[in-house]
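User: quick one - fold this with inosinic acid bound?
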Amino acid sequence: MQDDIAEILVTQEEIQAKVVELGRRISEDYRGKDLLLVGLLRGAIVFLSDLMRAIDIPVRLDFIGISSYGASTESGAVRLVMDLESDIAGRHVLIVEDIVDTGKTLAYLVENLRARRPASLRICALLDKPERRQVPIQIDYVGFVIPDKFVVGYGLDFAEGYRNLPFVGVLKEHLYKEVLMRGAILQRIQNYLNRQITLSELVAWARDTLAAGDLPLNEASLLQELIARVGEPGSPGFGLTVDDCADLLRRLGHEMRVSLGPLTY
Ligand code: IMP
Ligand code: MG
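Assistant: Sure. Structure tokens for the protein plus inosinic acid:
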């Protein structure tokens, strides 16, 4: 696992010291109030479990699960997958998150929780990647501001791996490039099936991507096969059959389902 790390960005010792400092600030700010810590599943649990022990006032704990569709290293549309157990009306709520990247996750969460009328609502995030921000977010307690690099460890994952590393490290690029490429191919095939792009556009994209070079071997052969299956424009058999698509998608770890419904205008 350590071999997959290009660089340690925040050491275990630095995290520890920061957690103590944040715990102290939070304890002072909320003294005499009843504080509810809301951890975002799953990335925040390591940070949260350390942070709560650095807080010396009584706290309660709850969790919320949020998931985002879209490519594997970027938030797409955000949705609630597991709700809080507690009623937060009139309570002092502190959201604890691992990292603020585009800000979409927290923007969604803040809006969602604010509607439940808590007495106060603040955010504590271990990491902040301000260069990537798309939605403005006020983070009340920040651990570390980091550059625009994909990081793992101390709760943060890549494809659900590396969460148990005790530090925050930068993942070696070749490891996530492959997954990103697979995501991109999947997306294009999906776009074609949903008629958002034409077959020619799909093939042109595949050719350009291949020509750009530096592709992982599996993904390169997938693209070559896609191009071969489509064939030449004008020649008999030009096109991509449903079976072709299903097969390509299967190799990307997805299955094709066809849904039928009445026409909507
Ligand atoms: P946002 O909605 O773009 O702000 O993204 C927040 C979520 O994306 C976080 O909860 C993380 O799960 C994930 N994320 C963003 N950047 C990274 C990263 O560098 N490593 C791992 N996960 C990340
Ligand atoms: Mg997360």
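One thing worth noting: DSSP finds seven helices and nine strands in the chain.
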